[in-house]
């Protein structure tokens, strides 16, 4: 498994409808990519967003990063949507699971 964590803050003046349309389109496109496993997004009380995507491999995540429509929207993200962001990516060194049976 390969994880990508996208931590971001949006600009106060973004076009929310345009951002929403791009975000929906990118999620649908990512879900269709080979090697995609999951995507979830969480918004903190202070407005910071954490988007977490899981991929079968580093190669699958890199292919997604280089996908042409995704690359185009990434450019809009930098120019129009985000105040700041940090991206963390890698293979977890430890995974702990817990689950109740029954």
Would you kindly provide a written description of the structure presented here, covering whatever features stand out?
By secondary structure, this protein is an alpha+beta fold. Helix content is 39%, strand content 32%. It has three helices and four strands. The protein has helices at 16-32, 58-66, 68-81, and strands at residues 2-10, 36-43, 49-55, 82-90. The protein has a four-stranded antiparallel β-sheet. β2 (36-43) and β3 (49-55) form a beta hairpin. α1 packs antiparallel against α3 (68-81). The protein is globular and about 45 Å long. The protein starts with a strand and ends in a 12-residue tail after the last strand. The model has no long low-confidence stretch (mean pLDDT 95).
Key phrases:
single chain; alpha+beta; 4-stranded antiparallel beta sheet
Task: Please state the structural category.
Answer: alpha+beta
Distance between the termini: 27 Å
Strand percent estimate: 25-35%
Lateral strand order in the biggest sheet: 2-3-1-4
N-to-C SSE series? EHEEHHE
What is the number of helical segments per DSSP (H or I, 4+ residues)? 3
Please tell me the overall pLDDT: 95
Helix content: 25-40%
Could you tell me the radius of gyration in angstroms? 15 Å
Query: Which geometry do the CA atoms define?
Result: globular
Q: What oligomeric state do the depicted chains represent?
A: single chain
How is this structure best summarized?
It contains three helices and four strands. With about 100 residues, the protein is α+β, with helices and mostly antiparallel strands.
